[in-house]
Design a protein that fits this description.
single chain; mainly alpha; 8 helices; elongated
Length: 149
Amino acid sequence: MGDFDHLIEVESEARDLLVRGEYRLASELFLKIVTELPEYEHGFCFYDLAICMEELGEFEAAERYYLQALAYQPDDSIRLGGYASFLYLHGNPRVAFYMHLRLLFLERTQLDPAGADKTLTALRTLAQNLHMPQEEFVRLTGSHLSPTQ
């Protein structure tokens, strides 16, 4: 057995618990992994831990873990999208807007038009909530559609 085979087993069990909605138990296992080897799977277990904390209503911990996951791979659209969605639901709308803007840039760079369309929808809603002028929205997003369209 390799040095990290036990972490693979723990991660598998934690993911099964996560899928079943057993967030507290899953979080305990993901925490065990990130405590033992934070860089395991390029820090992705921090992302899974963030999801657990968000589902448990522990928003400060969730945000901390989303940021730790992003520290390992800041241009991962899954991690960035998860954090942007978290901010959309639980964070400061202005910070959520700019995180979605970063996600939009990433999706356009990675040629993901479906993802970019979904992100633009979120950006429009956030822009409306922020009472953002149409000119600013167009300038920031490069979209020709106003926030109200």
